[in-house]
Structure formats: C-alpha cells, structure tokens
C-alpha cells in the first residue's frame, strides 16, 4: 500500500467508511464481474488521494478546493460534539440536584458569608444575603431549573436559526430599537486583539448604528483605537460568573443601560443569570442554544479542514491535538455569527494577530487560549468576505450580509 493510499485509508476508516485493503484487493481481482465500476472506483480513489496528498504536502490551504467526498466526510465529522455527553450529564445532575448538591455548586458560583449564606449583595430580592433554606432561595432554585431545562430542550441543530435572529433575541429591546423585525443598517464587531493599538479606528467604529463589544474589554483610555460607543455587550458566561462572585452582580463596563448578551459556557452559570437578571436595568439575554450548536459545528469544520490539509494525518488525530471535548469557538466568532442575523452590513475590527502585538489590547496577555482555533476562525471570516456560499451548515435560504474586515 502506497503512503498516499495508506493516508486515505486511515482518514476514512475513522468514519466507518471501510476501504480496507482486503476489500480493495477483492474489487480489483473481480474485474470480470464489474470491470467498469472497478475502474471508476479505483480512478476516483486515486484522484481524491492525489488531490489531498498535494494539499497535505503544503500546496496552500485557501487555493485548493476539496473533493466532494472529503467535504462530506468533514461535515459528518463536524456534526459530532464531543462535549455533548458530559454536558447532558451535567444538566441532568443540576436539574435533579438536592439541597446538598445545591450548596456544593453554589460554592463554585457565588461568594459565601457565614456557613450557609449566599451573598448576592443588593441583587438579593430583600437587598441582603440569602439563606439557602429560605423561601427566596427555593424560588430562585425553581427558576434556575426551569431556565436550564428550557435551554437544554432547545439546544439542537437548526440550519436556519439566523434567519429569525432579530426576533428570537428580542431585537426591539436592544439599544432602544422600536421597529420590530428591522435589521440594523451597519454593525461593528469590535474584537480585543492587540493589533488595534496600531490603528486609529475609533471614529470609524463609532459611526456604525450598532456596536458590539466583547467580554467587557476596557475602552477608557483606548477610545482613539476602539471607539467609545457601545450598543451591546457580548460575553461568555464566565464573565458574568466573575462579576457575580464580586457581589452585587454589577457587570456593566459600558454603562447600566447597555444590554448584555452571553452564551452559556457552563450550565451552572444559569445560577448567575437567574440571580443577576432581575437586577439589571437593561436586558440580560442568553444566545439561542440553536445558534450555539450551529457555531460549534462551523468552527469544528474549519478547524478539521485546516488540520487535514496542514498535517496530512487522519481526522481521528484531530481530537487529541485540539482539546477534544474542551474545544470551543471564541466569543468573537459567536458575536460575528450573531451579527450576521441582525445586521444589513457587518464590519469587523480587532480580529487577527501579529508577532509584535499583544493578544488583547487592554491586557498584558501574550498567548492564545489553547481551546480555540483562531486560525480556523480567520478562515471562516475570509469566507464571509469572499465566498459565503462555502460556509457549511447554514441554510441555503439565509442571505449573508456583506462583511468587511478592517486591519
């Protein structure tokens, strides 16, 4: 077996496509039975293998078009979320947890005062610390379970989820928007990359009708680079979790009137959401879990595609090199996916990296998080600009808005 055929064999056997050597030999030997089929099959295998072998040998990722059979394999591979089993188990445990487990989990989510006191500061319904045996906490626990169950029930793949995004995510409530169903004319998604410090995009960002910022990145002192206006604060639930631990649930870096939209990183964070949401003057919202599933599939597809082309290894090796169940899309990618459904035109700022720039413009962090594949996400952004039809899993009915990346 040649190296190319061996590579092809390893990659496809991981998905139940059993092109084993014995079977291939039998097909070749039995030419008298199906000469035409055998010839076509062998030529197809050779063509696919050769094409992939050229790609895997460094011919250039964005200049090569994947054969249809390989694309389908990548799609099948990307449909599997390795975190689903543990996530399901976590949700079931939280929904069915007794008071003892409640205390254990709350220790991970909130500050404690005394032995069994939950300090939510002014965010407690009675403006004081909350007793875990109180009626107030019992009510909170019921709300928590209901929200978690609803979220889990709706967490499924829906290719057309972005078509209804403006209504599903309460668009009329965002930034005082009164005309339901109308998308925002221009949107700026402001990333946190240190490359922003080499620009003067502040005024250009503030000219947009709708401006989304990520994970409470500080803007004070950086207005020349990142602007000063904010329409929506987009974050992962770890950020709200940290805010709630400080007491008071105050998580309004951009002002109390700026709505917050977050995706759930861990189911336990619904406790933070339940406690904090009633105290927020502006809406505290959660992304549609169907959008979460769609985003997860897309980023895995681009990551697996890049891995296959760069390494030439079988797809089954992707898991061990990308964190397996820990692999996840970034907050920036999720914010961009959201914007595609609510904006007529999308401008992307502060996405990308440079050897001479910090990872985040507002911190001293220099390294990237290992659970994200930023290069794969950049491939997606390039397709949004140049070839949105190449983006998988999105319904053919959805019309992508024009996207511009500012560097």
Description of the structure:
The protein contains 16 helices and 10 strands. With 407 residues, the protein is an alpha/beta fold. The strands form 2 sheets. Strands 8-7-6-5-4-9-10 form a 7-stranded parallel sheet, with helices on both faces. Strand 5 (210-214), helix 10 and strand 6 form a beta-alpha-beta unit. The longest helix is centred in the first third of the chain and has 25 residues, at 35-59.
Write a brief caption for the model.
The protein has 407 residues and is of the alpha/beta class. 44% of the residues lie in helices and 9% in strands. Residues 1-63 and 107-127 have low confidence and may be disordered.
Described by strand count, sense and barrel closure, the largest sheet is: 7 strands, parallel
What is the CATH C-level name of the largest domain? Alpha Beta
Count of spatially separate domains: 2
Number of strands: 10
Family: Belongs to the glycosyltransferase 29 family.
Protein name: Sialyltransferase-like protein
Keywords: Glycoprotein, Glycosyltransferase, Golgi apparatus, Membrane, Signal-anchor, Transferase, Transmembrane, Transmembrane helix
Main location: Golgi
Give the arrangement of secondary structure elements.
Blueprint lengths: L2 H11 L7 H9 L5 H25 L8 H11 L5 H12 L3 H11 L1 E2 L4 E3 L10 E2 L3 H19 L11 H4 L18 E4 L11 H5 L3 E5 L8 H4 L5 E5 H9 L14 E4 L6 H8 L6 E3 L2 H23 L6 H4 L9 H12 L3 E4 L24 H13 L16 E4 L1
Parallel strand pairs: 4-5, 4-9, 5-6, 6-7, 7-8, 9-10
Antiparallel strand pairs: 1-2, 2-3
């Amino acid at each position: 077996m040649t190296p190319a055929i061996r590579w092809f064999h390893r990659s496809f056997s991981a998905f139940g496509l059993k092109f084993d050597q014995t079977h291939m030999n039998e097909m070749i030997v039995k030419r008298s039975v199906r000469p035409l089929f055998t010839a076509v099959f062998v030529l197809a295998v050779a063509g696919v293998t050769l094409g992939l072998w050229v790609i895997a040998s460094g011919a250039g990722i964005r200049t090569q078009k994947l054969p249809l059979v390989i694309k389908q394999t990548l799609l099948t591979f990307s449909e599997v979320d390795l975190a689903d089993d543990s996530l399901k188990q976590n949700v079931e445990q939280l929904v069915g947890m007794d008071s003892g487990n409640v205390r254990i989990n709350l220790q991970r989510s909130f500050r404690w005062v005394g032995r069994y006191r939950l300090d939510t500061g002014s965010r407690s319904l009675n403006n004081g610390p909350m007793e875990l045996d109180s009626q107030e906490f019992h009510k909170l626990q019921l709300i928590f379970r209901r929200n978690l169950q609803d979220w889990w029930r709706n967490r499924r793949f829906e290719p057309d989820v972005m078509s209804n995004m403006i209504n599903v995510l309460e668009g009329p409530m965002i930034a005082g928007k009164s005309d339901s169903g109308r998308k925002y004319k221009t949107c700026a998604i402001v990333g946190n990359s240190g490359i922003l410090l080499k620009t003067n995009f502040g005024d250009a960002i503030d000219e947009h009708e709708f401006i989304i910022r990520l994970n409470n990145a500080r803007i004070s002192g950086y207005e020349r680079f990142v602007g000063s206006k904010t329409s929506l604060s987009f974050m992962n639930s770890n950020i709200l979790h940290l805010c709630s631990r400080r007491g008071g649930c105050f998580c309004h870096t951009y002002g109390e009137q700026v709505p917050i939209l977050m995706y759930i990183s861990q189911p336990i964070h619904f406790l933070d959401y339940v406690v904090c949401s009633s105290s927020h003057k502006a809406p505290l919202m959660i992304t549609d879990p169907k959008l979460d599933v769609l985003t997860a599939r897309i980023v895995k597809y681009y990551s697996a595609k890049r891995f296959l082309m760069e390494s030439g290894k079988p797809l089954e090796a992707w898991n061990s090199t990308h964190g397996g169940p820990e692999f996840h899309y970034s907050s920036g990618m999720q914010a961009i996916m959201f914007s595609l459904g609510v904006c007529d035109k999308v401008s992307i700022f502060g996405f990308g990296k440079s050897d001479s720039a910090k990872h985040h413009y507002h911190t001293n962090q220099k390294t990237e998080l290992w659970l994200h594949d930023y290069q794969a996400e950049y491939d997606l952004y390039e397709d949004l600009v140049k070839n949105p039809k190449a983006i998988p899993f999105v319904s053919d009915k959805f019309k992508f808005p024009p996207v511009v990346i500012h560097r």
